[in-house]
Design a protein that fits this description.
Blueprint: E1 2-7, H1 16-20, E2 27-28, E3 31-32, H2 33-44, E4 47-53, E5 66-69, H3 80-91, E6 97-101, E7 104-106, H4 111-115, E8 122-127, E9 140-144, E10 156-164, E11 173-181, H5 186-194, H6 201-210, E12 216-219, E13 224-226, H7 231-235, E14 240-244, E15 248-256, E16 259-266, E17 271-274, E18 279-285, E19 287-292, E20 295-300, E21 304-307, E22 313-316, E23 323-330
Parallel strand pairs: 1-4, 1-6, 4-5, 8-12
Antiparallel strand pairs: 2-3, 6-11, 7-13, 8-11, 9-10, 10-12, 14-15, 15-16, 16-23, 17-22, 18-21, 18-23, 19-20, 19-22
Length: 335
Protein backbone atom coordinates (compact mmCIF):
# COMPACT_ATOMS: atom_id res chain seq x y z
CA UNK A 1 0.00 0.00 0.00
CA UNK A 2 1.09 3.57 -0.77
CA UNK A 3 -0.16 6.78 0.86
CA UNK A 4 -1.09 10.02 -0.90
CA UNK A 5 -1.39 13.25 1.11
CA UNK A 6 -3.50 15.86 -0.68
CA UNK A 7 -2.06 19.30 0.11
CA UNK A 8 -2.86 21.18 -3.10
CA UNK A 9 -5.49 23.59 -1.78
CA UNK A 10 -5.02 27.34 -1.40
CA UNK A 11 -6.51 27.64 2.11
CA UNK A 12 -9.00 30.32 1.02
CA UNK A 13 -11.10 29.75 4.16
CA UNK A 14 -8.17 30.96 6.26
CA UNK A 15 -8.38 34.47 4.83
CA UNK A 16 -5.05 36.35 5.06
CA UNK A 17 -3.32 33.41 6.77
CA UNK A 18 -4.15 31.30 3.71
CA UNK A 19 -2.47 33.90 1.53
CA UNK A 20 0.75 33.40 3.46
CA UNK A 21 0.90 29.65 4.17
CA UNK A 22 -0.79 26.32 3.37
CA UNK A 23 -3.04 24.49 5.82
CA UNK A 24 -0.50 21.66 5.94
CA UNK A 25 1.91 23.93 7.85
CA UNK A 26 -0.52 25.17 10.50
CA UNK A 27 0.74 24.10 13.94
CA UNK A 28 -1.77 22.02 15.92
CA UNK A 29 -1.01 20.24 19.20
CA UNK A 30 2.72 20.92 18.95
CA UNK A 31 3.34 19.90 15.34
CA UNK A 32 2.23 20.84 11.85
CA UNK A 33 -0.84 19.08 10.46
CA UNK A 34 1.47 17.47 7.90
CA UNK A 35 3.91 16.42 10.62
CA UNK A 36 1.20 14.56 12.54
CA UNK A 37 0.18 12.65 9.40
CA UNK A 38 3.75 11.74 8.45
CA UNK A 39 4.45 10.33 11.92
CA UNK A 40 1.32 8.16 11.77
CA UNK A 41 2.35 6.82 8.36
CA UNK A 42 5.90 6.15 9.57
CA UNK A 43 4.52 3.98 12.39
CA UNK A 44 2.53 2.02 9.81
CA UNK A 45 5.55 1.60 7.54
CA UNK A 46 3.60 3.16 4.64
CA UNK A 47 5.53 5.32 2.16
CA UNK A 48 3.90 8.76 1.66
CA UNK A 49 3.61 10.85 -1.49
CA UNK A 50 2.66 14.52 -1.07
CA UNK A 51 0.94 16.54 -3.77
CA UNK A 52 0.81 20.35 -3.53
CA UNK A 53 0.60 23.42 -5.76
CA UNK A 54 3.27 25.58 -7.35
CA UNK A 55 2.55 28.60 -5.17
CA UNK A 56 3.23 26.77 -1.90
CA UNK A 57 6.10 24.67 -3.25
CA UNK A 58 8.75 26.38 -1.03
CA UNK A 59 7.02 25.11 2.12
CA UNK A 60 7.52 21.50 1.04
CA UNK A 61 11.21 21.66 0.16
CA UNK A 62 13.09 19.14 2.24
CA UNK A 63 10.24 16.63 2.23
CA UNK A 64 10.76 13.52 0.10
CA UNK A 65 8.33 12.38 -2.59
CA UNK A 66 6.58 15.67 -3.40
CA UNK A 67 4.61 16.18 -6.63
CA UNK A 68 4.08 19.80 -7.68
CA UNK A 69 0.88 20.74 -9.50
CA UNK A 70 1.25 23.71 -11.83
CA UNK A 71 -1.55 25.77 -10.25
CA UNK A 72 -0.56 29.11 -8.70
CA UNK A 73 -4.07 30.29 -7.75
CA UNK A 74 -7.44 28.84 -6.79
CA UNK A 75 -8.93 29.03 -10.30
CA UNK A 76 -6.16 26.85 -11.75
CA UNK A 77 -5.98 24.07 -9.16
CA UNK A 78 -6.91 20.46 -9.72
CA UNK A 79 -9.88 19.21 -7.74
CA UNK A 80 -9.15 16.55 -5.15
CA UNK A 81 -10.26 13.62 -7.31
CA UNK A 82 -8.27 14.90 -10.30
CA UNK A 83 -5.26 15.38 -8.01
CA UNK A 84 -5.50 11.72 -6.99
CA UNK A 85 -5.68 10.59 -10.63
CA UNK A 86 -2.79 12.89 -11.55
CA UNK A 87 -0.60 11.51 -8.75
CA UNK A 88 -1.38 7.89 -9.67
CA UNK A 89 -0.32 8.56 -13.27
CA UNK A 90 2.76 10.68 -12.58
CA UNK A 91 4.11 8.46 -9.80
CA UNK A 92 3.18 5.23 -11.56
CA UNK A 93 1.28 3.95 -8.52
CA UNK A 94 0.19 0.33 -8.89
CA UNK A 95 -0.66 -0.40 -5.26
CA UNK A 96 -3.79 0.13 -3.20
CA UNK A 97 -3.80 3.77 -2.14
CA UNK A 98 -4.38 5.37 1.26
CA UNK A 99 -5.56 8.95 0.60
CA UNK A 100 -5.47 11.61 3.33
CA UNK A 101 -6.70 15.19 2.91
CA UNK A 102 -4.28 17.43 4.80
CA UNK A 103 -7.05 19.87 5.79
CA UNK A 104 -7.94 17.69 8.75
CA UNK A 105 -6.35 17.02 12.12
CA UNK A 106 -7.12 13.69 13.77
CA UNK A 107 -5.65 12.43 17.02
CA UNK A 108 -6.18 8.68 16.57
CA UNK A 109 -3.61 6.52 14.87
CA UNK A 110 -4.43 4.66 11.66
CA UNK A 111 -3.73 1.11 12.82
CA UNK A 112 -7.36 0.15 13.38
CA UNK A 113 -8.42 1.86 10.18
CA UNK A 114 -5.86 0.03 8.05
CA UNK A 115 -6.46 -3.32 9.77
CA UNK A 116 -10.16 -3.07 8.83
CA UNK A 117 -9.29 -2.88 5.12
CA UNK A 118 -10.42 -6.01 3.28
CA UNK A 119 -9.97 -4.99 -0.37
CA UNK A 120 -13.12 -2.88 -0.70
CA UNK A 121 -13.03 0.94 -0.78
CA UNK A 122 -12.73 2.18 2.81
CA UNK A 123 -13.76 5.53 4.32
CA UNK A 124 -12.74 6.99 7.69
CA UNK A 125 -15.88 8.11 9.58
CA UNK A 126 -16.40 10.42 12.58
CA UNK A 127 -19.45 11.09 14.76
CA UNK A 128 -20.24 14.83 15.04
CA UNK A 129 -23.49 14.52 16.98
CA UNK A 130 -21.78 15.59 20.20
CA UNK A 131 -20.14 18.63 18.55
CA UNK A 132 -22.66 21.47 18.02
CA UNK A 133 -20.00 23.52 16.20
CA UNK A 134 -19.71 20.83 13.49
CA UNK A 135 -22.57 21.01 10.99
CA UNK A 136 -23.12 17.61 9.37
CA UNK A 137 -25.04 19.16 6.45
CA UNK A 138 -21.82 20.95 5.43
CA UNK A 139 -19.94 17.63 5.18
CA UNK A 140 -20.31 14.25 3.51
CA UNK A 141 -22.62 12.11 5.64
CA UNK A 142 -23.10 8.34 5.66
CA UNK A 143 -25.82 5.83 6.44
CA UNK A 144 -25.16 2.32 7.69
CA UNK A 145 -26.81 -0.23 9.93
CA UNK A 146 -26.95 1.44 13.33
CA UNK A 147 -26.17 4.99 12.12
CA UNK A 148 -29.26 6.34 13.91
CA UNK A 149 -27.51 5.96 17.27
CA UNK A 150 -24.14 6.36 18.99
CA UNK A 151 -22.08 4.36 19.54
CA UNK A 152 -22.83 2.15 16.53
CA UNK A 153 -22.94 -1.66 16.81
CA UNK A 154 -19.41 -1.89 15.38
CA UNK A 155 -16.58 0.46 14.48
CA UNK A 156 -16.29 -1.30 11.10
CA UNK A 157 -19.39 -1.53 8.86
CA UNK A 158 -20.66 -1.52 5.29
CA UNK A 159 -21.91 1.83 4.00
CA UNK A 160 -25.50 1.83 2.72
CA UNK A 161 -25.62 5.45 1.52
CA UNK A 162 -23.16 8.33 1.21
CA UNK A 163 -24.14 11.94 0.40
CA UNK A 164 -21.93 14.98 -0.07
CA UNK A 165 -23.32 18.09 1.69
CA UNK A 166 -27.07 17.44 1.79
CA UNK A 167 -29.70 19.07 4.00
CA UNK A 168 -30.96 17.43 6.08
CA UNK A 169 -27.92 15.15 6.52
CA UNK A 170 -28.58 11.42 6.31
CA UNK A 171 -26.92 10.90 9.72
CA UNK A 172 -24.53 12.53 12.18
CA UNK A 173 -21.66 10.38 10.92
CA UNK A 174 -19.36 12.19 8.47
CA UNK A 175 -16.45 11.40 6.18
CA UNK A 176 -13.07 12.48 7.56
CA UNK A 177 -11.24 12.85 4.25
CA UNK A 178 -9.35 9.58 4.80
CA UNK A 179 -9.85 6.80 2.24
CA UNK A 180 -8.35 3.59 0.95
CA UNK A 181 -8.87 3.07 -2.78
CA UNK A 182 -8.06 -0.42 -4.09
CA UNK A 183 -6.03 -0.33 -7.29
CA UNK A 184 -8.85 -2.06 -9.20
CA UNK A 185 -10.92 1.19 -9.04
CA UNK A 186 -8.19 3.30 -10.67
CA UNK A 187 -9.72 2.84 -14.18
CA UNK A 188 -13.07 4.03 -12.79
CA UNK A 189 -11.28 7.02 -11.27
CA UNK A 190 -9.70 7.95 -14.61
CA UNK A 191 -13.05 7.66 -16.41
CA UNK A 192 -14.72 9.75 -13.72
CA UNK A 193 -12.16 12.54 -14.17
CA UNK A 194 -12.36 12.36 -17.98
CA UNK A 195 -16.13 12.94 -17.74
CA UNK A 196 -15.40 16.07 -15.67
CA UNK A 197 -17.75 15.08 -12.88
CA UNK A 198 -17.88 16.83 -9.49
CA UNK A 199 -14.36 16.76 -8.10
CA UNK A 200 -14.81 16.49 -4.32
CA UNK A 201 -13.82 13.03 -3.02
CA UNK A 202 -17.30 12.48 -1.59
CA UNK A 203 -18.86 12.62 -5.04
CA UNK A 204 -16.48 9.93 -6.27
CA UNK A 205 -17.43 7.75 -3.30
CA UNK A 206 -21.10 8.29 -4.22
CA UNK A 207 -20.24 7.30 -7.79
CA UNK A 208 -18.64 4.04 -6.67
CA UNK A 209 -21.72 3.18 -4.60
CA UNK A 210 -23.97 3.91 -7.58
CA UNK A 211 -21.89 1.48 -9.63
CA UNK A 212 -22.60 -1.24 -7.06
CA UNK A 213 -19.24 -1.20 -5.24
CA UNK A 214 -19.40 -2.60 -1.71
CA UNK A 215 -17.85 -0.01 0.54
CA UNK A 216 -16.77 -0.09 4.16
CA UNK A 217 -16.56 2.58 6.80
CA UNK A 218 -14.45 2.70 9.95
CA UNK A 219 -15.25 4.91 12.94
CA UNK A 220 -12.32 7.02 14.16
CA UNK A 221 -12.19 7.99 17.82
CA UNK A 222 -10.43 10.84 19.58
CA UNK A 223 -10.39 14.34 18.06
CA UNK A 224 -11.03 15.23 14.44
CA UNK A 225 -11.68 18.61 12.79
CA UNK A 226 -10.92 20.75 9.77
CA UNK A 227 -8.08 23.05 10.89
CA UNK A 228 -9.70 26.06 9.21
CA UNK A 229 -12.51 25.77 11.79
CA UNK A 230 -10.19 26.58 14.69
CA UNK A 231 -11.75 29.55 16.47
CA UNK A 232 -8.66 31.75 16.43
CA UNK A 233 -8.27 31.30 12.66
CA UNK A 234 -11.95 32.08 12.10
CA UNK A 235 -11.55 35.27 14.13
CA UNK A 236 -8.90 36.55 11.70
CA UNK A 237 -10.58 35.61 8.40
CA UNK A 238 -11.39 39.28 7.79
CA UNK A 239 -8.13 40.64 9.19
CA UNK A 240 -5.37 42.48 7.34
CA UNK A 241 -2.06 40.77 6.59
CA UNK A 242 0.60 43.21 7.84
CA UNK A 243 3.72 41.04 7.93
CA UNK A 244 4.88 37.98 5.99
CA UNK A 245 8.61 37.36 5.96
CA UNK A 246 11.21 34.86 7.18
CA UNK A 247 10.53 35.84 10.81
CA UNK A 248 6.77 35.82 11.14
CA UNK A 249 3.29 36.09 9.70
CA UNK A 250 1.07 38.67 11.40
CA UNK A 251 -2.54 39.73 10.87
CA UNK A 252 -4.37 42.58 12.55
CA UNK A 253 -7.99 43.49 13.18
CA UNK A 254 -9.03 46.96 14.28
CA UNK A 255 -11.59 46.53 17.08
CA UNK A 256 -12.54 50.18 17.04
CA UNK A 257 -11.42 52.98 19.27
CA UNK A 258 -7.95 52.30 20.65
CA UNK A 259 -8.12 48.50 20.58
CA UNK A 260 -6.18 46.26 18.20
CA UNK A 261 -6.37 42.47 17.87
CA UNK A 262 -3.32 40.71 16.39
CA UNK A 263 -2.42 37.14 15.42
CA UNK A 264 1.26 36.29 15.07
CA UNK A 265 2.78 33.07 13.76
CA UNK A 266 6.41 33.35 14.86
CA UNK A 267 8.72 31.03 12.96
CA UNK A 268 11.39 28.84 14.54
CA UNK A 269 14.44 30.70 15.88
CA UNK A 270 12.88 34.17 15.48
CA UNK A 271 12.05 37.05 17.86
CA UNK A 272 9.02 39.31 18.03
CA UNK A 273 9.15 42.65 19.90
CA UNK A 274 6.16 44.38 21.49
CA UNK A 275 6.35 47.91 22.82
CA UNK A 276 3.92 50.74 23.32
CA UNK A 277 0.37 50.29 24.61
CA UNK A 278 -1.06 47.84 27.12
CA UNK A 279 -1.41 44.28 25.78
CA UNK A 280 -2.47 40.81 26.80
CA UNK A 281 -0.94 37.86 24.90
CA UNK A 282 -2.79 34.55 24.57
CA UNK A 283 -0.50 31.74 23.42
CA UNK A 284 -2.37 29.33 21.14
CA UNK A 285 0.22 26.69 20.22
CA UNK A 286 3.94 26.00 20.26
CA UNK A 287 6.44 27.03 22.93
CA UNK A 288 9.11 29.63 23.50
CA UNK A 289 10.42 32.28 25.91
CA UNK A 290 9.04 35.70 26.77
CA UNK A 291 10.99 38.55 28.34
CA UNK A 292 8.85 41.28 29.91
CA UNK A 293 11.05 44.00 31.33
CA UNK A 294 13.81 42.02 33.05
CA UNK A 295 11.75 38.91 33.72
CA UNK A 296 12.07 35.85 31.47
CA UNK A 297 9.64 32.95 31.49
CA UNK A 298 8.79 29.96 29.35
CA UNK A 299 5.55 30.21 27.39
CA UNK A 300 3.43 27.61 25.62
CA UNK A 301 -0.11 27.05 24.37
CA UNK A 302 -2.84 28.27 26.78
CA UNK A 303 -0.55 30.69 28.66
CA UNK A 304 -1.79 34.27 29.13
CA UNK A 305 0.71 37.08 29.73
CA UNK A 306 -0.06 40.74 30.50
CA UNK A 307 2.24 43.52 29.31
CA UNK A 308 1.88 46.88 31.06
CA UNK A 309 1.94 50.15 29.16
CA UNK A 310 5.43 51.40 28.38
CA UNK A 311 7.03 47.98 29.00
CA UNK A 312 9.09 46.37 26.27
CA UNK A 313 8.53 42.65 25.67
CA UNK A 314 10.37 40.10 23.55
CA UNK A 315 8.91 36.78 22.46
CA UNK A 316 11.53 34.28 21.31
CA UNK A 317 10.74 31.03 19.51
CA UNK A 318 13.64 28.73 20.34
CA UNK A 319 11.76 25.60 19.22
CA UNK A 320 11.66 23.91 15.82
CA UNK A 321 7.95 24.68 15.26
CA UNK A 322 5.90 27.83 14.82
CA UNK A 323 4.82 29.68 17.96
CA UNK A 324 1.29 31.07 17.60
CA UNK A 325 -0.15 33.80 19.82
CA UNK A 326 -2.97 36.32 19.82
CA UNK A 327 -2.58 39.74 21.42
CA UNK A 328 -5.19 42.35 22.27
CA UNK A 329 -4.53 45.80 23.58
CA UNK A 330 -4.26 49.50 22.92
CA UNK A 331 -2.66 50.58 19.70
CA UNK A 332 1.02 51.29 19.91
CA UNK A 333 4.27 50.93 18.08
CA UNK A 334 5.02 47.25 17.35
CA UNK A 335 7.88 46.62 14.88
Amino acid sequence: MRALILAGGFATRLGPIGEAMPKAMITVEGDTVLGHILRKLEKLGVEPLITTNKRFEPFFRGYPNVLIEEATREEEKLGAVSAIANAIERAGIEDDLLVICVDNYFSSDLKGFISSYTGEPLVGIYYVGEHPDMRAEEMATVKFEGSERYPPPSRSFYIQDFREKVKPPISQYVSTGIYVLPKRVFPILRSYCAAKKQDAPGFFIQHLLQLGERMKGYLLEGEWYDVSHKSYLQTFREAKLVKNDRDAIRCERDLGGALLLSLTILHAGCVHVIQGGDRVCFFVDGEGEMKVGEKIRRVRGKDVIEIESGTRAEIRNASGRDLIFVSVGTKGKTP
